């Protein structure tokens, strides 16, 4: 069973939470993830140029059309029934990163811990959404990944307020997030000397991943890469196979 079939199975299993079921990609009634939108999840991620400071990032698919709609519905529309399927896609991206990133592979060979670190929700966004959807998605992806070499650690936290990123360009996003994240003191010992794989739902300009990587490196992480559900066509790209 491939990832899209697992996506469908997971979405149908949770479909009773939303009545009547509507496709998370196109809002057509009857299915949580319709046949046409399933096809969209099979599109390969785009090839683009990496931004300065952005870690190599692997994606499962492209963030456009039905995939973008599903990610937005999960994050801002309360569609928790989409989580299992999106987590499967994030797990695919994480597996690609663990297999494809030379630094992560070297860490595993040396027995260095690989921490799966979700991008943290800001306090304001958490209050608005009523939960941390990316954190929950990352936890579900870690369970789906089922890799003993990688463990979920919510090591990052916001240390100052940030503005909504919607509508901001690359430079504005980078300025908005500069110095906004740090490793929580209780996780400092775990991050120091560890390899980290940052998890997020979407990469757009790479500013969020760059700031997360900066904070982890500042705390002593020896290697940082990233994995996301989907990448926009203008997103940063790492080595071949990354997005």
Topology, pairings included?
Layout: H1 3-14, H2 35-40, E1 57-62, H3 65-76, H4 83-100, H5 102-110, E2 114-118, H6 123-129, H7 133-145, E3 150-152, E4 156-158, H8 170-177, E5 181-183, H9 188-191, E6 195-203, H10 207-218, E7 223-231
Parallel strand pairs: 1-7, 2-3, 2-6, 6-7
Antiparallel strand pairs: 4-5
Helix pairs in contact: 1-4, 4-7, 8-10
Shape: globular
Q: How are strands sequenced across the largest beta sheet?
A: 1-7-6-2-3
Structural class: alpha/beta
Largest sheet: 5 strands, parallel
Number of strands: 7
| Poorly predicted parts | 11-18, 235-241
Distance between the termini: 24 Å
| Mean residue pLDDT | 82
Helix content: 40-55%
Task: Give the topology string: H per helix, E per strand.
Answer: HHEHHHEHHEEHEHEHE
Number of helices: 10
Rg, Å, rounded: 17 Å
Determine the strand fraction and express it as a percent band. 15-25%
Describe this structure in words.
The protein has 243 residues and is of the alpha/beta class. It is built from ten helices and seven strands. The chain has a five-stranded parallel β-sheet, with helices on both faces. Strands 4-5 form a two-stranded antiparallel ribbon. Helix 10 (207-218) links the parallel strand 6 (195-203) and strand 7 (223-231). Helix 4 packs across helix 7 (133-145). The protein is globular. The two termini are 24 Å apart. The model is unreliable at 11-18 and 235-241 (pLDDT under 50).
Which terms summarize this structure?
42% helix, 5-stranded parallel β-sheet, disordered C terminus, 7 strands, alpha/beta, 243 residues, two-stranded antiparallel sheet
């Amino acid at each position: 069973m491939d990832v899209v079939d697992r996506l469908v199975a997971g979405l149908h299993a949770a479909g009773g939470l939303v009545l009547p079921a509507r496709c998370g990609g196109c809002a057509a009634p009857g299915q949580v993830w319709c046949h046409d939108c399933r096809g969209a999840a099979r599109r390969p991620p785009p090839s683009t140029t990496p931004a300065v400071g952005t870690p190599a990032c692997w994606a499962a698919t492209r963030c456009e059309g039905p995939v973008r709609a599903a990610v937005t519905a999960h994050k801002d529309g309360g569609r928790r029934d989409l989580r299992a399927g999106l987590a499967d896609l994030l797990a695919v991206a994480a597996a690609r990163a663990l297999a494809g990133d030379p630094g992560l592979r070297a860490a595993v060979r040396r027995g260095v811990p690989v921490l799966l670190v979700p991008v943290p929700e800001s306090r304001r966004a958490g209050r608005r959404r009523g939960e941390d959807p990316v954190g929950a998605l990352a936890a579900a992806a870690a369970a789906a990944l089922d890799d003993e070499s990688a463990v979920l650690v919510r090591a990052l936290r916001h240390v100052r307020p940030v503005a909504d990123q919607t509508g901001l360009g690359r430079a504005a996003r980078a300025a908005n997030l500069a110095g906004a994240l740090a490793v929580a003191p209780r996780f400092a010992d775990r991050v120091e000397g560890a390899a980290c794989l940052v998890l997020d739902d979407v990469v757009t300009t790479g500013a969020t991943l760059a700031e997360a990587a900066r904070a982890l490196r500042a705390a002593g992480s020896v290697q940082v890469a990233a994995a996301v559900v989907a990448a926009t066509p203008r997103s940063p790209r790492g080595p071949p196979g990354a997005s």
